[in-house]
């Protein structure tokens, strides 16, 4: 499993207590909403996708980072400075921002509205492929292993090679063909052609002609 990242541009709130401690609160992912075009396909994170990673303990060492930079740590689950939970909306986070240059800068930029995006890094445990109501290729995430959440200045265009490998494997297609189709925004046509080929009979049906006799 390779690491993937996804970003949403959403409001992140900074809360300050009576001791001037600052906590960033928001969502790193939202359930059951269609992403933008990720390179020939859309994606949706299904409710419960983070349940296993949060309950099994695999997410207990997840970090909160600034711009996915592991040298700029803002919090950590095992230290109690990052709290993660699932609700009806998605993956919610609370980060107790540190009294460091990165932490103070993050707080200021969030409060000014200069930074609004949040992101998460993950590895897929279970996904599936279908299509939207408009027939567009749709990847659905059902179970993911979480490694980190980040506050991000710029939503990064996601690296989709991992997703495209998953699609190629599930449809038994050549990966290079899938990658090329995605680059040309032709995944829908490729999958439709593959489906038609799969459903076609292996041998043409014999044609029987019936002739009516005249008496």
Descriptive report:
With 215 residues, the chain is of the alpha+beta class. The chain has one domain (4-156). The chain has helices at residues 51-55, 101-112, 161-171, 175-183, 187-199, and strands spanning 4-9, 13-16, 22-30, 42-45, 63-66, 69-76, 82-86, 90-96, 117-131, 137-152. The strands form 2 sheets. Strands 1, 4, 5, 6, 9 and 10 form a 6-stranded mixed β-sheet that branches. The longest helix has 13 residues, at 187-199. The radius of gyration is 23 Å and the shape is elongated. The protein starts with a strand and ends in a 16-residue tail after the last helix. Residues 205-215 have low confidence and may be disordered.
Summarize the entry for a quick read.
Helices cover 23% and strands 36% of the residues.
**Relative helix content:** 10-25%
Q: Can you summarize the main beta sheet?
A: 6 strands, mixed
Rg measurement, Å: 23 Å
Approximate strand percentage: 35-45%
Order of helices and strands: EEEEHEEEEHEEHHH
Q: Report the structural category.
A: alpha+beta
The shape, in one word, is elongated
Number of helices: 5
Average pLDDT over all residues? 82
């Amino acid at each position: 499993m390779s690491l993937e990242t996804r970003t949403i541009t959403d409001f992140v709130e900074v809360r300050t207590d009576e001791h001037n401690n600052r906590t960033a609160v928001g969502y790193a992912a939202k359930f059951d909403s269609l992403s933008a075009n990720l390179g020939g396909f859309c994606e949706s994170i299904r409710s419960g996708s983070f349940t296993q990673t949060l309950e099994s303990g695999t997410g207990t060492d997840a970090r909160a980072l600034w711009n996915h930079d592991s040298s700029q740590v803002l919090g950590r689950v095992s230290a109690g400075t990052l709290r993660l939970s699932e609700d009806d909306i998605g993956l919610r986070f609370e980060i107790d921002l540190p009294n460091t240059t990165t932490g103070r800068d993050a707080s200021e930029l969030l409060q000014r509205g200069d930074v609004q995006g949040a992101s998460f890094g993950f590895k897929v445990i279970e996904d599936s492929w279908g299509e939207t109501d408009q027939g567009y290729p749709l990847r659905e995430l059902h179970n993911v292993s979480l490694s980190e959440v980040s506050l991000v200045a710029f939503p990064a265009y996601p690296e989709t090679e991992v997703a495209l490998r998953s699609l190629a494997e599930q449809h038994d297609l050549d990966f290079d063909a899938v990658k090329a189709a995605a680059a040309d925004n032709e995944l829908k046509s490729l999958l439709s052609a593959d489906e038609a080929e799969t459903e076609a009979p292996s041998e043409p049906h014999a044609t029987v002609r019936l002739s009516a006799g005249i008496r």
